[in-house]
Write a structure and sequence with these properties.
mainly beta, globular
Length: about 190
């Protein structure tokens, strides 16, 4: 009896130990967050933020890694999740105009259809999508085009950040490889 109980206990512990999930490895495309106003978290920590931020973008940062990005792994004329892994999340904390179109306070996903001279930016209402695999155009809130420019320096990791715009508002800047797009945001 004692021997059977010991074996049963050993088997249960072995099964439990084998069922434990191992921690995940470091992701090749790390997650990052950018805020507008620029450096909002630091402003908040230092007591200099009077209100909530205007906008926040949460995205994964794929690397160029000697690959051809635009026209290569990111196909021209095809939907791109504007990052890696989960769809890029865009949250606005007050109503804004983005690319001249109204985007109400809320949380959205961002997509892009890149072309050689312009990108079609898509703000979509589906907040629970991974990549662009379940993209549904019926959930698009707005679409608008922005011109792209070529940069002289290569940006290794996809980078999205906000910068103050001349005359007020901001630009959400997207850079990767030798391409840059600026999306105007106004209150």
């Amino acid at each position: 009896m004692k021997y059977t109980l010991t074996i049963a206990l050993f088997l249960c512990c072995s099964i439990f130990a084998a069922a434990q999930q191992k921690p995940t490895e470091l992701d090749k495309s790390p997650l990052d967050v950018s805020y507008y106003p620029v450096n909002y978290p630091l402003l908040k920590m230092n007591g200099k933020a009077k209100d909530q931020p205007v906008a926040r973008v949460i995205y994964s940062r794929p690397l160029k890694s000697n690959r051809t990005i635009f026209g290569g792994i990111v196909k021209y004329g095809e939907l791109w999740r504007l990052g890696a892994n989960e769809s890029t999340e865009f949250e606005v904390f007050k109503n804004i105009k983005m690319g001249g179109k109204t985007v109400g306070k809320g949380r959205y996903t961002l997509y892009c259809i890149p072309n050689e001279t312009k990108w079609t930016i898509i703000v979509n209402k589906d907040n629970f999508s991974w990549g662009s695999f379940s993209y549904n155009s019926k959930k698009d809130l707005v679409r608008f085009d922005v011109p792209i420019s070529k940069t002289t320096e290569v940006t290794e990791a996809l980078t999205i950040y906000f910068e103050d715009a001349t005359g007020g508002g901001a630009n959400m800047v997207i850079m990767w490889d030798n391409v840059k797009a600026s999306i105007p945001i106004n209150l």
